[in-house]
Amino acid sequence: MLASLPPGAWHTGWVRDATYAIGALSRSGHYDNAKDALEFFLDADAGRYPDYLNNVPYRISTVRYYGDGQEEADYSGQSTRNIEIDGWGDYLWAARMYVDASGDTSWLGAATKKGDTVYDAIKEGVAEPLAANLEQNGMVIADASIWEVHWGNRQHFFYTTAAAARGFCDMATLARRAGRTDDIARYKQLAENAVTAIKSTFIDSQRVLGGSLERLAQGANYRDGATVESVTWSLIDPSDPIAGASLDALSHLQTPAGGYKRVEGSNDQYDTDEWILIDLRASAAFRRAGNSPKADSLLDWVTSQAAVNHDLLPELYNTVSSSGPIGAYSGSIPMVGYGAGAYVMTHLDRVQLYEHTDCGDKDLGDYPDAGPVLTNHDGEGQNGIDGGRTGLACACTGGPGAPGTGLVLAIAFAFVLRRRRD
Prior knowledge:
Blueprint: E1 13-14, H1 15-27, H2 31-43, E2 64-65, E3 71-72, H3 86-102, H4 118-131, H5 158-177, H6 184-201, H7 213-218, H8 229-232, H9 241-248, H10 269-272, E4 274-275, H11 276-288, H12 292-307, E5 316-317, E6 329-330, H13 338-350, H14 411-421
Antiparallel strand pairs: 1-2, 2-3, 4-5, 5-6
């Protein structure tokens, strides 16, 4: 699963980007595609950099893959590699979404190309290596994390610990689905420890979540768009003061286009441009917190921009007038990993169809539904969503709150599906 299609620069397989797309594929009923992507990770060539990670063997790349499935931990012009293990927690999240949406619990007992079962591969190759890289208080060791700062600049990032918390919780559920009930308590406890570390360690005096412990210690420039996952991953209740304070603090990341950049305190345009992932996940977080107008404004903005750009989703929106119109597409285009993936999941959140988030407490029959929303062949969507679309005049800019087009699934996302079916 690629992060971007050509001509976008990121036309390679990133773990993190793929997991958001896998979640969307699973929850929209594209089970075969989701399973293929999950199995790629278990069958590919990873585990090349254990000396960074307490010398434990691992199954999932620390960044991305070459086209032949070999792990790459890139330098990208820096003096040290990118070593980031947030993708390990993300993978556990994606695997659980597939099993719960499809009901395919038998997959966990299937054999991988390396000879072990899927469950054992996930446990020994993903969950246990992640557990071996925890600090005493339950948070994950310093790494390069979601924003890929490289090992020489590693920090204890919120996102990596949040991904671990979500992933360990989902691993407890995978254990239940596989009939490995002896594993449930261990992973549930690891998830609880990680959440406790987030609530006690990653907050300032106003209860605002910071992007990393190191930035928090500096006392400035620690607001980080990735903290919205505390709410969207159901780690912190939307009514919790931490959630409210952290969502309010997104104002520090507001861009001239109206959405959000990823971090504060940087003058690099890659940091100051608006990030579609943050806009979409923030939309879902605001909706869960009861602020539907704000949630709709962000989602409508992304949708209206896509409608006048061939339904393709970008990595970024421009925020620098010298680089072109404010709000124009920037970065890699089309962004078919976390861009299209987050877009689909944001629409599922819009109709309150959330992924399951209990930590191994329920069987599949205990849920009212398994999460997916499928569009009927006649174009009429379920749950009140219009499966059709309207046209807008061609333009490359708009603004938050601009008229939306209903549920417009990214053509880039559909293109990937067609290619995988060929």
